[in-house]
Structures are given as structure tokens and as C-alpha cells.
Design brief:
43% of the residues are buried. The chain has a seven-stranded mixed β-sheet, sandwiched between helices. By secondary structure, the protein is an alpha/beta fold. The protein has a single domain, classed as Vaccinia Virus protein VP39 (Rossmann fold). It is globular. α3 (54-74) packs across α4. Helices cover 37% and strands 20% of the residues. Bound molecules: S-adenosyl-L-homocysteine. S-adenosyl-L-homocysteine is lined by residues 100-103, 105, 122-125, 128, 150-152, 170-172. S-adenosyl-L-homocysteine (SAH) binds at residues 100-103, 105, 122-125, 128, 150-152, 170-172.
């Protein structure tokens, strides 16, 4: 790392508290700052993200990543009743997979915030995964695992199929593609969280049949506004209620070429 001073993330303990009812510890704040610095550095060689301004990075990468999982953790979503409503600690340690994690979003902020759970970061680009392995070691994230591969293939692999409590996916494809990538990887009762920008009722209706074919239901859809730029975001929460038929996910490329 060079000697010149890298920009600092905004000090926003009050915004974390007001919006997510959670405040990062000093250690977590340091991890967020170091993550930011590593990504700025990594951006010189790898095209990781166009978001480099500190405030924008905080909002679009850190806050947005954690906003998607708070209701799950607060309501005890997957693991039963949550006894500590004001913390991001899950009731029982959960296994997360972040599909198409890119520069590590939402998976790395989740791994930092929910240190008792494990987070598997999956991406088809080997270089990105190599970079994330370095970040995991530098930030001392012992709960992070990495995996290079295609969601279509990993979803058919016995070691990964039906193995996760929560599958996260942001900015990877259309909602039906995201459903086909996430649901096969979930245990029965598990939750897929699809991060979206805008979302409409019509899109919900159009997605229902795909989710049903994959053994899921659309459990809820949350709309929220980001704290700085006041942009609209949605998270779709899909619950796996039945076994996913073995033909899903279909071979590489098919989910996007022939959407369900
Ligand atoms: N989730 C991150 C990155 C989104 S970019 C974020 O929100 O910032 C999409 C990423 O998904 C890319 O890194 C790309 O390599 C990966 N990807 C696309 N299709 C994939 C597939 N079928 N399986 C695994 N990774 C995939």
C-alpha cells in the first residue's frame, strides 16, 4: 500500500443506528475502512467498482449490503426467534452464499457485521475471487469462504446444492435468473434475498410462476430509501418451501437466454 492518505469513510454511527438499529463496533469500523482502501487499491488492476467516493461507497456498498439482511436478522427469519433485536447477530449461526459477489458485495459487509455466520463468496471470475481471498486474509475474516464457478454449475453440485440458509444476489441478472441461481442452493426453509433498484407489482406477478417452479414463494418485498442520495431500493425475499426439481438450475447460459 502506498504512503499517500486514502480518503476516509464518513463517520455515521447515528445513521447506522437510526436506519438499521445497529452500530458497528470499533473493530468493524476499521474493517470497513480497510475494505474501502483495499478496493481502491485493487481498482487499479481490476475493474472492481465505479463507486469510489467515500460517501457513495458507504451508501451503495456498505449500507445497501446490510440493509438487505437486517429484517432477516431482526425477525429471526431463518433461525427462529431472535433474542437480541437490536443487534445484527443471528439467533443461530447461518450459512450465507453471495452469488456473483464481484468485489465482495453484499457478502463481505455481511461477513463483517455477522461474524458468527459463514459467508461463501461465489463468482465466475477467478481474478475477483483471488482478490477477495486476499481481502479476507488482510481483514482477518475467518468466516469467509470463496468459490470460483458459475451459479448454474455450483447449484447442481452435491456439496453446495441445498446447503445454505441464505442466498444473497445483487446486480447479477433479471429477477427470474436470480431465483434460478439462488433457490437450488438453499436448504428447505432457507431464504433468498434479491437486491433490486426499482421494482413494480407487475414484475412481482411475472416472477411468481418462476419462483413456484423452483420450489419457492415470494414471501415479502421491502422498499426503502438510501440515507444520503435518497435512491429507491427493493429487496425481494423468497422462501424455499419445497425441493427444487433436479433440472434447475439449467446449464450455463440457459437461465438468462430462456428465462422461466
Ligand atoms: N454483486 C456485486 C457484483 C455485481 S457484477 C455487486 O452488487 O456489486 C456481477 C458479477 O456476477 C460479476 O462479478 C460476474 O463475474 C458475476 N457473475 C455473472 N454471472 C455469473 C454466474 N452465472 N455465476 C457466477 N458469477 C456470475
Amino acid at each position: 500500500m502506498n504512503n499517500f492518505k486514502l480518503p476516509s469513510l464518513p463517520e455515521v454511527a447515528d445513521i447506522w443506528q437510526q436506519t438499521l438499529h445497529w452500530t458497528p463496533t470499533v473493530q468493524q469500523q476499521v474493517q470497513f475502512q480497510r475494505l474501502y482502501e483495499f478496493i481502491l487499491e485493487g481498482n487499479r488492476q481490476l475493474n472492481l467498482t465505479r463507486i469510489t467516493d467515500p460517501q457513495e461507497f458507504w451508501e451503495k456498498h456498505l449500507w445497501d449490503s446490510l440493509r438487505g439482511i437486517t429484517s432477516l436478522l431482526r425477525d429471526g427469519g431463518v433461525g427462529g426467534e431472535n433474542t437480541s433485536p437490536s443487534s445484527l447477530t443471528s439467533p443461530t449461526p447461518l450459512s450465507f452464499i453471495d452469488i456473483g459477489t464481484g468485489a465482495g458485495f453484499p457478502g463481505i459487509p455481511v461477513a463483517i457485521a455477522v461474524a458468527d455466520s459463514t459467508v461463501t463468496l461465489l463468482d465466475s471470475t477467478r481474478k475477483k475471487i483471488a482478490f477477495l481471498e486476499k481481502i479476507g486474509a488482510e481483514l482477518d475474516l475467518t468466516n469467509v469462504k470463496t468459490l470460483t464457478g458459475r451459479a448454474e454449475e455450483v447449484g447442481q453440485h452435491p456439496q453446495h446444492r441445498q446447503s445454505y440458509d441464505v442466498a444473497l444476489i445483487r446486480a447479477v441478472g433479471t429477477a427470474s435468473v436470480c431465483a434460478e441461481y439462488t433457490l437450488p442452493l438453499l436448504k428447505q426453509g432457507g431464504l433468498a434475498i434479491i437486491y433490486r433498484g426499482n421494482w413494480t407489482e407487475e414484475e412481482t406477478k411475472a416472477l411468481e410462476s418462476a419462483v413456484h417452479q423452483l420450489g419457492g414463494i415470494i414471501e415479502s418485498i421491502e422498499k426503502f430509501t438510501t440515507p444520503f442520495s435518497h435512491s429507491i431500493r427493493h429487496c425481494l425475499y423468497l422462501r424455499k418451501v419445497a425441493t427444487t426439481p433436479s433440472q434447475f438450475p439449467r446449464p450455463v447460459g440457459v437461465p438468462s437466454q430462456k428465462p422461466l
